[in-house]
Structures are given as C-alpha cells and as structure tokens.
Amino acid sequence: xxxxxxxHLRILGCDSSDNSRCGIYVNGNVxxxxxxxxxxxxxxxxxxxxxxxxxxxxxYGQHLTVMNNRALSTDDAGLDVTGGAPLVLENTIVWNNxxxxxxxxxxxKLATANDRLRHVISDSICGTQSAENVNVNSxxxxxxxxxxxxxxxxxxxxxxxxxxxxxxxxxxxxxxxRVMGSLPDLGVHEN
Length: 191
What we know:
Layout: E1 2-12, E2 21-27, E3 30-40, E4 43-44, E5 46-52, E6 58-62, E7 65-67, E8 70-71, E9 77-81, E10 87-95, E11 98-99, E12 108-109, E13 116-122, E14 125-126, E15 134-137
Parallel strand pairs: 1-3, 2-5, 3-6, 3-7, 4-8, 5-9, 6-10, 7-10, 8-11, 9-12, 10-13, 12-14, 13-15
C-alpha cells in the first residue's frame, strides 16, 4: 500500500463541469494522510475528497477545512471514502458542501465500523456512527472571511484534541503556532 501525505495545502476554486473531479481524488489502495488541508469553493462531478476501492488503504485527516464544495452529479461533496477503507478525522470542519444533482448530501460518509470522528464539526454525516466518535457537533463553525479563518466567537476555537493519532502539527496552514490557546482550534487556521 502506497502512502500519500498531503500537508499545508490549499485546493480552492476549481471549477470543472466536464465530468472530472476537483479536490483529492484517489482510486486504488493508498493510505492518505492529510494535515492542514483546505478544500473549498470547488465545483465538479465530485468535489472535496473522493477515495474509492481503497480496501487496503485508509484516510486520515487532521485539521482539515472542507467547505462550500458543490458536486454536479450524484457523487457527494465533502468527504466520500468508500470501499472498506477506514476514515479517521480529527480536529476537522466539514461544512456547507452541496450535492447539486439530487444526491443524498452527505458531507461525511461513514462506511465502515472502523471510521472515527474526533473533535469534528459537520452539518451532514451519513452512515453508522461509531461509539468511538467524540465531540462531533453540527453547529455553525462561524467563519470570519474568504480565507476560512475562524471568527472570534467560533465554537471551533480551542475545541480541538491534543492527543491525536499522529503527532499534532507544529503550525497551522499559514505557519502560525498550532496551539495558541488552551487547545488547538478545529480546521486549518489557528485563531
């Protein structure tokens, strides 16, 4: 199984109406580790993260912000990891992603008993939630600007987890210290 590591990455404003995908697209047995990744304002057949036939691989996301993506088909916008691969999200925001063609609008699609969500804000989760899921909320993360910084009043501030599956990154997406309060913020930016 190959390891694909993505860190401190912005995928913004991809617009593809020709049956292609925008965001992270993987079809095969790959372990994916994404840390401090912003996927926003993309519009395509599927937008956000799409990993399929990944039965030997896994998807681990820490400090992701996946917002305002729009799928133009029945594929989901947001995070769609299928085929048996475990999905683990920590300190992540998945909000306001839309399926524009009559799909089921799952922002996060849980497909296996090994899927875990820890300190996640999402407005739409489909599938069976594990007992291991902790601090999963569907409250508005309150974004301050077009760069997806958190507002001062955001419930995502100081709401993260210090003890993550892999080491906590030292910096946020912009190079600021990852922990500036008592706990890390959710998403890509530390406020």
